Amino acid sequence: MSLIWTKGGSYRRVEYEDEADLEAAIVEVQAELFGPNRIYLDAKKKIGAKGGLRNIPDGYLIDLSGRQPRLYVVENELASHDPLRHIAVQILQFSLSFEEEPRAVKTALFSALQSQPDAKKQCEEYAASHGFRNLDHMLEHMVFEGPFAALVVIDELPEKLESVLAERFQFGVEVLELGRFENGQGDRLYHFEPFLADLREDVAAAEQVAKAGVSRVDASEVDTVVVPAREEGFQEVFLGENRWYAIRIHGTMRPQIKHIAAYRVAPVSAITHIAPVQSIEPWKDTGKFVVNFAEPAREIGPIELVKGGRGKALQSLRYTTRARLEAAKTLDDIW
To answer: pLDDT value at position 54?
Structure first.
């Protein structure tokens, strides 16, 4: 049993009573769970063509954090409900219903926003400032022109869930774990990694670069990952095997990633090579992934770490764009 210790006492992990209990927790922590400029709609309405496959998503997430709005269909699930099978089936059905009758999805979104005036106002303001005629036009763009993506919120992450979803679906599926802890007095804590938190940090860092005169980066434009590599692994795997493993990449970002670059740690301390991506596949049963190259990596830069600069030595995978890498002289030009 997981436990959180504080000077004020210990908190033990407690299960949700049912999915409604989990959904209530999501609503409670939604601002921190999903991050700024994202709207969670707890809307349960049938989607799909009449006479065909019809189902009810648990909710929707409207992402207004970028230059283009993005929609995620949400599935809330308990680990005790055979999630490996159930979640995969539900997401497949959602994607088919989304494709067969997108107008039902748009109607469900519009209806849900009518009951949340603040969320509706936020969407209307975003639409007005991003080239859309009105809210209806923005919703139509999200549903009819945007890529299908799913978000799973689960109380405890099964070991193979992310690998199973990656194997079965070409579209992006993001998974968030929302654990609940409670002390003897009934006070509660929630444990989670916020939605796309590290990507948000990379985009925010790039925004600081933009203020210095470099064009800004948008999450929808991200097409490259940069991975830190020690010399032995870089020579044997990145150059020798034309691949890199085992790394974590967000499910919703995997379809966008077209390039991988290597940041060689000290004493090199620079991004020196980049390769086109052929495929990103689950790596054994680790919940991590292997990136297979389409061709051998070529030299770039070097894009060096500046001592005392804004950019820091890479400790984990970072997101950016190939164009940004090609134009950069130092890490300060990227993040």
So the answer is: 61
Summarize the confidence of residues 170-197 as an average pLDDT: 91
> Residue 213: its pLDDT value, please?
43
CATH T-level assignment (fold) for domain 197-333: ph1033 like fold (3.10.590)
For residue 142, the surrounding DSSP H or E stretch is: none
Peptide bond into 36 cis (omega under 30): no
Distance of CA 293 to the CA centre of its chain: 22
Bridge partners (DSSP) listed for residue 303: 271
Q: How many CB atoms lie within 10 A of CB 248?
A: 14
Do 262 and 268 meet the contact criterion of CB atoms below 8 Å apart? Answer: no
- Backbone torsions φ then ψ of 106, nearest 5 degrees: -60, -40
Closest by CA to 113, choosing from 40, 50, 210, 163, is 40
User: What's the pLDDT score for residue 210?
Assistant: 44
Residue 264 forms beta bridges with which residues? 229, 270
Does the domain at 3-191 match CATH 2.40.50? Answer given as no
For 134-181, write each residue's pLDDT tens digit: 999 999 999 999 888 999 999 988 777 777 777 777 788 889 999 999
Cβ count near 68 (within 10 Å): 17
Helices (H), 101-196: 102-114, 117-129, 135-140, 161-168
Domain ranges of the chain: 3-191, 197-333
Residue type, 21: D
| Per-residue confidence (pLDDT) for residue 212, from 0 to 100 | 44
Residue 318 CA to its chain's centroid (Å) = 13
Place of tokens 């190259």: 293
Q: CA distances (Å), 111 to each of 43, 73, 124, 295, in order? A: 9, 15, 14, 49
pLDDT at residue 157, rounded to an integer: 83
Q: Determine contact, residues 141/109, Cβ cutoff 8 Å.
A: no
